[in-house]
Amino acid sequence: MAIDAANTTTASQRRTGYRFNLTGWISLIVILAWALIAILAPYVTPHGISDIVDTDYFGPMSLQFPLGTDYLGRDMLSRILFGARYTVGISLAATLIACSIGVTLGMAAAVTGGWFDTALSRFIDALSSIPSKLFALVAVAGVGSSIPVLMLILGIIYTPGSYRFARALAVNVNTADFVTVARLRGEKLSYLIRAEILPNIIGPVLADVGLRFVFIVLLLSGLSFLGLGVQPPEADWGSLVRENIGGLPFGSPAVMAPSFAIASLTIAVNMLIDNLPQKIRDRSA
């Protein structure tokens, strides 16, 4: 019976091409839960995010306020649920900007080669030589801290890393025989990128997208903690830590809860990425 169960599991894995262990499933559930909360935040918050619902600031956890209250007596559960909308939304948008631009340019440079590859790579190297936090601080201080600006700045900061990663993968695929045959057939650059290069690097690229997302979440939270991220009356998780830092000596959940929210999301994404290489090996086999 044990042998039959093992054979059934193996057959299922061969059919799907994916192998999730318990850690992978838990991580996926956490990520999907935060994504769902970010979408449905206005409908699931028990109180208004700006409503003062308690006369006691830095109130303790209770049945009425499961995560306590903040420095003004506002419900922390409501503010964290709504803060997910900004943390997840801005980070996801910036990740898509960085990875779509970086991966596209990386594949184009690898396939085209020559002066285009050299010039673009040197420009990317110059851009990546600027420390990310310094670039973000200067750009936000100079341009402003609106949500579209944050998305664009964070996307620009992590485009070079995505470019270098995609180019390194595409250079190897570009030397394959099937790419040479497609080039001899007279296929255009767009076809080579879309049909020949991208399908063969999509697994590692998806893993890199997850890493970029984690980096952007942490950088966004750091900017908000310094007061240069999401501005009041909106608040992301980094802003919630900053505005409630005065409750740290009291062990207030108002400062610990958003920190745990950041940790839960980033750790879940990292642990899910750790499961991706096994999935890729199974699929390629």
UniProtKB/TrEMBL annotation:
The keyword Transmembrane applies. It comes from the Bacteria. CDD domains: TM_PBP2 (cd06261). Its main location: membrane. It is found in: Cell membrane. Pfam families: BPD_transp_1. PROSITE patterns: ABC_TM1. GO terms for cellular component: plasma membrane. Residues 84-273 form the ABC transmembrane type-1 domain. InterPro entries: BP-dependent_transpt_permease, MetI-like, MetI-like_sf. The keyword Transmembrane applies. One of its GO terms (biological process) is transmembrane transport. Keywords: Cell membrane, Membrane, Transmembrane, Transmembrane helix, Transport. It is a multi-pass membrane protein. The chain crosses the membrane at residues 22-44, 86-113, 134-159, 205-230, 250-273. Belongs to the binding-protein-dependent transport system permease family. This is ABC transporter permease. It comes from Bosea spartocytisi.
